[in-house]
Amino acid sequence: MKHQLSPDRLSRRLLHTCFTASIILMAGNAAVASDATTAEIQARTSETPSPNPVYMPGGSDADLPKPNHPPIEQIPPMPMPDASNTSKVFVDQGPGNPVFYDSRTGVQTIGDSPDPKRLELMPSQGGGYEGALTPSTGEGLQNDQPGDIQPYGFSSMTKISNYTDHPWRMNVKLVMRFEDTGGASHWYVCSGTMRDAEVVQTAGHCVYDRDNDYGWARDIYVYPAYDGDGDAYGYGLTGTMASWTGWTNNGDWNYDVGAVVITRAVGMLTGWFGWSVGGDCATETARTWYNVSYPSESCGQPGLHNGKDMYFWWGSFDSCPDTNRLQIDTTGGCFDALWGGQSGSGAYYINNNNRYVGAVASTSNRSTIGRYTRTFQAWVDYVNNTTIPTVARTADFDIQALATRLDDANLVSGDTTTGLKHTATNATNGTSASATRSFRVYLSTNDNISSFDTLLSTQYYSWAFSAMQNTNINMVNVTIPLDTPTGDYWLGVIYDDGSDADDSNNDTDGWDAAKIHVTQRQTFLDVPTSFWAWLEIEKLVAAGITGGCDASNYCPGAQVSRAQMAIFLERGMNGGSYTPPPATGTMFSDVPISHWAGAWIEKLADDGITGGCAAGLYCPDNIVNRAEMAIFLLRSEHGAGYTPPAPTGTMFADVPATHWAAAWIEQLASEGITGGCGGGNYCPDADVNRDQMAVFLSKTFDL
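The chain above was modelled as a monomer; its predicted structure follows.
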């Protein structure tokens, strides 16, 4: 399953300690990972045709497991203490060291002591990426703020409605699971910001709990642009996280910072914020800052702070308490204070249309004070030079299949999609030379795309992937099988194994599959979907062989005349758009040039399929019987010169070997085009109706 980190991939991430220096850029005084890029290419269908797709009712695969946490709206916020009170175990031992934790192994790793200069306030900024999906500026404030903006304090919070627009989509909701000493689970929620394709920045107390002595979180689910039901961008799951021992060991709020590494490169779609290390207090309080989060703590008004609504506020910080903190002087109330659930959300400023997170929400007394921990230089260095390149990205080229999408998700069976595409992302520091990338397109009854689903198409493209590159693949559109029943389905892709370093994320599962609704086609009022020949009649319509007997009906019980038969066969042989040459009126004496089917009848004779019903006659109004039909069909299928094998006379009780059409009838049965009329008989003299003809034609021409 693509949202889980495979053991092999986990091992590569933990053991890999080097990365390609050529994609590391210097910005200010810190090394930062390069931004991502986006390309767009066109896929083609495989030169080896896929088998004719057959809808597989029910499939053979299980539903995708759902996130293993309580309903998000029922999960309480991570406690956000009032930092004016000393933590119960606070010991002033300085900033400490970076610390990394792998919850799958339970191993905690302490990093080297940073250069003391890196703990100073050394202004710098860098990084950031807007994402592969179409961005749009969201704040709407930098161009219409009053010229005399208030110098202190934040605005009241405003609810965001367009969650998936840029930059809102770069903000996330975290769901964390902690364990007590007895092994019981305790769930909390926080906020955070995308920091890279698979890295989220948050508060230290969101990944490491000190108040209850739970320690490190055991699991963290990350929901970018969470919109109340998790379908904005799906989710990513972590087993690895980072913080600073100044927080984990000492409880110093000046180092209340954390990072989460997830196993899905959703940041390539949403984008991520740049980083910032601030200067002196005067510089930081003079900036305009923005903050987006998910308040989840009750503020006294029912319906507010429900944990699913995203809120935004902006303004200036008022002061710089302690050595590494920024403070807002708040007025209290649901929209004018810092509340539980907002912990870990990033405060960012805008410079030249780029957004840089310089602090994370940390503590509050819910009324007069809200405090944010600044992202200091040593923390930025650790995230940029260790967490991102060696844990999240690695140097191993890896395609992740993401975000299958199409123009219209409401389809009728038999429809062909429009605008079908997906994103193939290489969220690593590895590269790949140009090569053919093959993938298969499936229709599934659930969001777990697998080879058990209905194969619709095999496609490929050639591409050389750069490091940290999105590639939007414009796919060849696929056709929904006609026999697909009404219901909800998912379209997705699976890349062939061996395409890259990790095969576990080659399929577009979960949110990355495109949910569609299919309505089973009913073209004619007199042919409901329950009709025995409904599918074959719809196949004739789809192939353009018939438009019915009038605008709304097919007339399935009506008999088929020889004139109608000529049209059916010629369209079956040449395609629904085929038009024969004009009639001459000289081939059959009973088919004048003015006959409505004259051109079709003459073309059928010219093709050698028929010689008429008698010398110089075609008998266009005669009804086709089942014996005649066998000859018509086989000659249309195999050509005018075709001769079937000699008959045995044992296949049907009413077709002895001496019957004039026995060889044709037995060959028709041998090819699976007919099974007879029942009771071991073929009924060679019975008339052919339009519903029967639909079945015969669809099988003969493999529609």
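The chain has twelve helices and 32 strands.
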